[in-house]
Design brief:
Elements lengths: L7 E4 L5 H17 L17 E5 L3 E3 L7 E3 L14 H10 L8 E7 L5 E4 L11 E7 L1 E6 L9 E5 L4 E4 L8 E7 L11 E7 L7
Antiparallel strand pairs: 1-10, 2-5, 3-4, 5-12, 6-11, 7-10, 7-12, 8-9, 8-11
């Protein structure tokens, strides 16, 4: 039995197939309003292998000149991000155990050869809010480690409809995507994987 780091939860098949199909259509509308773009690494300018966009009041972006950050507008069009679909807000309410709504939803599209290196999500102000991730489309091999790079890692397969929560002691665990398994899902017409990552960005005023 796979034992995950404390605070890391994997909920297989959380979204049934009809809910996945409906969510894909909502994400298509998001992408139409805020087209996918290719993010670049700070300093080096190396392009990432994923294409991405965002929805919500804030969106996560990165480029060579200004690095990792959140901003309220699309980096190419300059337009505000579209709202987060209600279906995703519902998932957040059900699994986050956090009293305030997410402010950003990253939409990452993985083609068959895309990867995501081990990293921490630490561009946010309040680490008491979890990161909630929803998988759609082809399976991937997801890797999760400890809160330092020296800790060991564990890998497991994520399927369409799965939800992962990084919260509490697991909020700053390193994580990444080792590979995509092509043609393991028929959800997306042309294959690939969509990862939807819900985040709270700023501290809530008390």
């Amino acid at each position: 039995m796979l034992v995950l780091p404390k605070g890391v939860r994997h909920m297989p098949g959380y979204l049934p197939r009809p809910a996945q199909e409906a969510l894909v259509e909502e994400i298509r509308a998001v992408v139409q309003a805020a087209p996918l773009f290719v993010p670049a690494m700070p300093r080096t300018g190396k392009e990432m292998s994923v294409r991405m966009t965002n929805c919500g009041p804030l969106g996560w972006v990165t480029d060579k000149e200004r690095g990792y950050r959140y901003q309220p507008t699309h980096p190419v069009s300059g337009q505000p991000w579209p709202p987060i679909p209600e279906a995703l807000l519902k998932v957040w309410r059900e699994v986050s155990a956090y009293p305030h709504p997410p402010q950003a939803c990253l939409v990452n599209f993985y083609s068959s050869d895309a990867r995501m290196g081990l990293h921490q999500d630490r561009d946010e102000e309040d680490f008491s809010a979890p990161v909630v991730s929803v998988s759609l489309g082809d399976d991937c091999l997801f890797r999760v480690g400890q809160t330092t790079r020296e800790g060991g890692t564990k890998s497991f397969r994520l399927k369409s409809g799965d939800v992962v929560v990084l919260g509490g002691e697991g909020r700053l665990c390193f994580h990444g995507v080792d590979r995509i398994y092509p043609s393991t899902s028929a959800l997306l017409k042309n294959g690939g994987r969509i990862n939807l990552t819900l985040r709270r960005v700023t501290l809530h005023a008390r």
